[in-house]
Amino acid sequence: MPSILPLGDPAPPDGLLPAQALDGAIGRAFGLYVHIPFCAVRCGYCDFNTYTATELGGGASQDAYASTAISEVELAVRVLAGSGLPARPLSTVFFGGGTPTLLPAEDLARILTAAIDAWGLEPGAEVTTEANPDSVTPGSLQLLADAGFTRVSFGMQSAVPHVLKVLDRTHTPSRVPQVVQWAREAGLAVSLDLIYGTPGESLADWRHSLETALSYGPDHISAYALIVEDGTKLAAQIRRGEVAGIDDDDHAAKYELADKLISAAGLGWYEVSNWARTPDQVCRHNIAYWRGDDWWGIGPGAHSHVGGVRWWNVKHPTAFAGRLASGASPAAGRETLDAATRDVERIMLEARLATGLNVVGLGETGRHAVAGLIADELVDPALAFRGRLVLTLKGRLLADAVVRRLLPG
């Protein structure tokens, strides 16, 4: 089942934000995330807030979802204006899920058009949709491009059939080069998502997946280590001994291979799990998350953040639609972050970026840790001496440990 929502304070029915959200807002970028909570099949490793057709009750049909999402766009306009936030055009829009492209391309275009009508788009704004390789056609991709989408992120995951089978992926490897070509013909930038460390995946399997993905010439690659989440089908299979468990040394070897091959193909890392062919082709929407910009999350279970105020919507599509139909905010809870918490989160997130952390912005614990991080070859020494902490390859493998050393105990 999907993961549990965090604890927090009750969110007001009108959704209005406290005064803290206004501080410095005019200087912060504003983005939109649109959650499409539908999947054809629930993958065994996934604990995202997604639903197959058989898991949905009444009032949550895919046919009505675009109109429901547009209702939250309209609510967001009222909440932001009513809270005194300045009008800001969208710098990024990201449709995620789930499988956004399970909805008709016309519905995704309707939601995007409503958002553009509400806020406008900055010149050159990035507009991305995630997609499964078996959920698009040449026509649907062209329609999305014509509507204003600029980028598509395909969930390739692996080029090896037995690995895809363990992950419960529904596409075949031969489908990926076809959809990449269609996206190119539509004028869309292409990102490929890969997962490593699947039970039964050998290092040779992973090399084959990397080399195959790179042969398609993507603009961007994300490579994530498989995490086994409690409550998923895969967790149960591992617990019963039906498939092997996860091995940290295996993950490390596969990450090192990924960085070697992806870098050799001309893509540079800009975040621990992400590589782009040029600086212009990084995922700017994710960068906005990592740098603490403002964004509104549309959809059931979606999270939002404005000026240190974070909130999250009710999880189930039926409850989500019901709240909006009654004129109430779909927010289930929220929290207002104090300065110390925001600083901790900034360190946790910015440490993972190739741009690194400013040593001056660290607390006493972090500044005292710098010499040890250099000695342990976890950060670039030349950049550290110039006041910037940037992870080495070894440091990227141990990024969480680096962050722990930078933060007060």
UniProtKB/TrEMBL annotation:
<keyword id="KW-0349">Heme</keyword>
<keyword id="KW-0963">Cytoplasm</keyword>
<keyword id="KW-0479">Metal-binding</keyword>
<dbReference type="InterPro" id="IPR004559">
    <property type="entry name" value="HemW-like"/>
</dbReference>
<comment type="similarity">
    <text>Belongs to the anaerobic coproporphyrinogen-III oxidase family. HemW subfamily.</text>
</comment>
<dbReference type="GO" id="GO:0006779">
    <property type="term" value="P:porphyrin-containing compound biosynthetic process"/>
</dbReference>
<dbReference type="Pfam" id="PF04055">
    <property type="entry name" value="Radical_SAM"/>
</dbReference>
<dbReference type="InterPro" id="IPR058240">
    <property type="entry name" value="rSAM_sf"/>
</dbReference>
<keyword id="KW-0411">Iron-sulfur</keyword>
<dbReference type="GO" id="GO:0046872">
    <property type="term" value="F:metal ion binding"/>
</dbReference>
<keyword id="KW-0004">4Fe-4S</keyword>
<protein>
    <recommendedName>
        <fullName>Heme chaperone HemW</fullName>
    </recommendedName>
</protein>
<keyword id="KW-0408">Iron</keyword>
<dbReference type="InterPro" id="IPR006638">
    <property type="entry name" value="Elp3/MiaA/NifB-like_rSAM"/>
</dbReference>
<dbReference type="InterPro" id="IPR013785">
    <property type="entry name" value="Aldolase_TIM"/>
</dbReference>
<keyword id="KW-0143">Chaperone</keyword>
<dbReference type="InterPro" id="IPR034505">
    <property type="entry name" value="Coproporphyrinogen-III_oxidase"/>
</dbReference>
<feature type="domain" description="Radical SAM core">
    <location>
        <begin position="24"/>
        <end position="271"/>
    </location>
</feature>
<dbReference type="GO" id="GO:0004109">
    <property type="term" value="F:coproporphyrinogen oxidase activity"/>
</dbReference>
<dbReference type="GO" id="GO:0005737">
    <property type="term" value="C:cytoplasm"/>
</dbReference>
<comment type="function">
    <text>Probably acts as a heme chaperone, transferring heme to an unknown acceptor. Binds one molecule of heme per monomer, possibly covalently. Binds 1 [4Fe-4S] cluster. The cluster is coordinated with 3 cysteines and an exchangeable S-adenosyl-L-methionine.</text>
</comment>
<keyword id="KW-0949">S-adenosyl-L-methionine</keyword>
<dbReference type="GO" id="GO:0051539">
    <property type="term" value="F:4 iron, 4 sulfur cluster binding"/>
</dbReference>
<dbReference type="InterPro" id="IPR007197">
    <property type="entry name" value="rSAM"/>
</dbReference>
